[in-house]
C-alpha cells in the first residue's frame, strides 16, 4: 500500500509533514510518496538526521505550492505543478492508494473532485470527521464541503456516513440522525423536512437505521452515530465543539495551576486527564475523510505536526484496508433518486 | 417594579417556579405576580411552609395551561385563558414591567409578538442568551426565534445585541461579529455576504463596532462580544456549546471519582471546579431575553428549578432598570432599511 502525501501543505510544512511520514512508514509498514519541492523535503529529512531515503519512501518533485489565498476552484489550472495537484494526479493514475494534504481545504475539495472524481452517482463529496462523544464516537457528514445542499445530497451523506461508521466505528447498525433545531418531525427548514421523508423511507426499507432528528446538544451526548447536515451547519457544529473543548481545557488547566495544593491535586488525576486530552486531540484521531471520491482523500488539520500526520496516515491505511469507497460504489443504486432528465 | 411570572410553564411548574419567585421577591426587592391555577400555586406555597401571600406577591388566576404539543402560532386564540397568554396580556396592559416563562419557547415568541408587540421598525424579535467565554461573556443573537432571516433582520440583531452588550456586559464598544464558516469577507451563504456589507457600512458610519466574520471556534474563545446569526444556526451553536460542556464536565467527574487518590486530588481543586461549574450553569446566568419586544420578555430554561427562576427574575429586574427596550426604540432610525412600499 502506498500513501501519497502533500509535503508542502499546512502550517508546518515540509518539516513536520516529512517527519511524520517517515515515522509512519516505519511504524505502520506503508510505502510513502512525498510530493513537493525536492530540495526542501531533503533538508527536512536532514534536520531529522536522515541522509538517504528510507525503504519504501519516494519523493515526487513538484515546483509549485497551493497557497491559502488561491481561488480553490481554479488551482487545477493555475497551480498545475503544485504538490497538491500533482499528488492527486498520481493518485488518479494509480500510482498510490490514498492521498493526504494539510493544505487549503477548499482547494483539496475542488481538485480531488476534478482529478480523482466522485463515485458515479454521488452528487457531492462531503467531509466526514469522527467526533468524540460519550460513547464510541460519531461521524459528522458534511462538516464543510457544501454550504448549500439538496435533500438528495443529505440522503447520500446519510448512506455514506452509515457505511463509514459500520467499519470505522465497528457498529453493526449505526444510528443515523438529522442535525436539527428540535427532535420533532416537523422541525427545521425545508431541507431538513424533505430529508426526513427520504431517510424515513430508506429506513422503512431496511437500508439504514434512521433515528430521526437530533439536537446539537445530543451530538456530544451520543444521541446518534452518524450526524447528517449541510456543510455550513456542520462547520458551525464542529468548530463550536472544538472551541468549547479548548475553553474548558484551558479553564481546567488554570484550576490545576492555581496553587501548590491544586498542583498536587492535578498530579493525582494525571492519568485520567491525559486520557481525556487524547480523546479530544485531533492528532490522535487523524484527519477528515473526503467521502464520495473514488479513492481515499484525507484532509489533515492545517496545524498538523508530525504526530498529526502520522495519525492521518494511519487513517488513510484504514480507509484503503476497509475500502469505504468500494462500499459506496457497490450500493450506489440504493441512494440515487430518479431524475427527470 | 413588578415582574409577572408564568407559574405553570416548564418541567417543574408550579412548585419550583413559585419557590423561586418567593425567594426572589424577598432577596431582590421586586413585586411579583404569579399567573396560573390559584389552588395549585397556593399548595406549592404551602409545601414551602408559607400560608399567606408575602408582601408584594400577588396571584392572577388562569384556568388553562399552554402545553408543549400546542401549535405555538395559535395559542393566543386556542389558549386565551392560559397562564402564558394572560400573563403577557397584563404585561401589555401595564400591570407589570417584565414577563418570565419557562414554558414553550415557540408559544412565548408568538404570543409575545402578538400581544406585547415588536418595537416599531423592528422586523423580528430574537432570542439573545449570554454565553460564557474566556472573557466577559458574549451575546448570541438570534439563538432560535427565526429559522429564516434576511440581511436586514441580521443587521437589526447586530444593533440590538450591541445595545444589550453595552449595558448588560458593561462594554463601551462591543465587538460585533457575524457567525460564519470562515473569517474572510467572501465566506458563507448569500445571507452572510449581504449582512457583511450592511454591518460594514454601519460600522464605517460609527454606529456599531463590526469586527467581521468569526468562526464558531472563536465564540467560546472570545473573538467577539456580539455573535450575529440566523436562529437555526444560533440554535446549533448554543446546543453544541451546552452538549460539549456537559460531556467534558461528565468526563472530569469520572476522572475525579475513579479512585481514592483522584478523589483526594479533586478535594484540592474543589474551589476552582465549583467556580467553573457556576460559569457554565444556566441557573446562574438566568434566562434568555426576547430582544425587540416593547417590554422585557424572558424565556427561562424549561428545566428551571427555584434557583433558575430566581436567576431569571434577577435578569428581568436588570432589563427593566437598564431599559434595553428604550435604547432600541430610541435608535430605531439607525437600523431600518428604506423600503420600496
Question: What's the layout of helices and strands?
Answer:
The structure is a homodimer of 341-residue chains.
Chain A (H helix, E strand, L loop, with lengths): L1 E5 L8 H14 L2 E6 L1 H10 L9 E5 L13 H4 L4 H10 L5 E4 L3 H11 L10 E3 L1 E2 L6 E4 L9 H18 L6 E6 L9 H15 L4 E7 L10 E3 L2 H26 L3 H9 L1 H10 L2 H4 L2 E4 L5 E3 L6 H17 L1 H7 L11
Parallel strand pairs in A: 1-2, 1-4, 2-3, 4-12, 7-10, 8-9, 8-10
Antiparallel strand pairs in A: 5-11, 6-7, 11-12
Seen as an oligomer or otherwise, the chain set is homodimer
Secondary structure class of chain A reads: alpha/beta
Biggest interface, chains and residues, is: A-B, 55 and 55 residues
Portion of residues within helices of chain A: 40-55%
Largest sheet of chain A: 7 strands, mixed
Query: In sequence order, what are the helices and strands of chain A, one letter per element?
Result: EHEHEHHEHEEEHEHEEHHHHEEHH
Q: Provide the gyration radius of chain A in Å.
A: 21 Å
Query: What percent of residues of chain A are in strands?
Result: 15-25%
Shape, principal axes of CA atoms of chain A: globular
Amino acid at each position: 500500500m502506498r500513501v501519497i502525501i502533500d509535503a508542502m501543505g499546512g502550517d508546518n510544512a515540509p518539516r513536520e509533514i516529512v517527519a511524520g511520514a517517515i515515522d509512519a512508514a516505519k511504524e505502520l509498514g506503508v510505502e510513502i510518496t512525498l510530493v513537493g519541492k525536492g530540495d526542501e523535503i531533503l533538508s527536512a529529512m536532514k534536520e531529522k538526521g536522515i541522509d538517504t531515503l528510507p525503504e519504501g519512501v519516494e519523493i515526487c518533485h513538484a515546483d509549485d505550492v497551493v497557497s491559502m489565498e488561491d481561488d480553490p476552484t481554479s488551482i487545477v489550472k493555475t497551480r498545475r505543478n503544485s504538490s497538491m495537484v500533482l499528488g492527486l494526479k498520481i493518485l488518479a493514475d494509480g500510482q498510490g492508494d490514498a492521498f493526504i494534504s494539510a493544505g487549503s481545504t477548499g482547494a483539496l475539495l475542488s481538485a480531488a473532485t476534478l482529478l480523482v472524481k466522485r463515485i458515479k452517482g454521488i452528487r457531492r463529496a462531503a467531509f466526514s470527521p469522527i467526533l468524540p462523544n460519550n460513547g464510541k464516537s460519531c461521524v459528522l457528514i458534511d462538516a464543510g464541503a457544501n454550504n448549500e445542499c439538496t435533500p438528495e445530497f443529505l440522503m447520500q451523506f446519510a448512506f455514506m456516513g452509515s457505511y463509514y461508521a459500520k467499519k470505522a466505528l465497528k457498529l453493526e447498525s449505526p444510528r443515523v440522525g438529522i442535525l436539527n433545531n428540535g427532535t420533532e418531525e416537523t422541525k427545521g427548514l425545508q431541507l431538513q423536512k424533505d430529508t426526513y421523508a427520504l431517510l424515513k423511507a430508506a429506513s422503512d426499507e431496511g437500508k439504514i437505521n434512521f433515528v430521526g432528528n437530533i439536537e446539537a446538544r445530543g451530538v456530544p451526548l451520543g444521541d446518534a452515530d452518524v450526524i447528517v447536515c449541510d456543510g455550513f451547519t456542520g462547520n458551525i457544529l464542529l468548530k463550536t465543539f472544538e472551541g468549547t473543548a479548548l475553553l474548558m481545557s484551558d479553564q481546567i488547566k488554570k484550576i490545576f495551576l492555581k496553587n501548590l495544593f491544586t498542583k498536587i491535586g492535578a498530579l493525582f488525576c494525571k492519568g485520567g486527564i491525559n486520557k481525556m486530552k487524547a480523546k479530544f486531540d485531533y492528532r490522535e484521531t487523524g484527519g477528515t475523510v473526503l467521502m464520495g471520491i473514488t479513492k481515499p482523500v484525507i484532509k489533515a488539520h492545517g496545524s498538523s505536526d508530525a504526530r498529526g500526520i502520522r495519525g492521518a496516515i494511519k487513517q488513510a491505511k484504514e480507509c484503503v484496508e476497509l475500502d469505504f469507497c468500494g462500499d459506496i460504489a457497490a450500493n450506489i443504486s440504493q441512494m440515487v433518486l430518479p431524475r427527470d432528465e
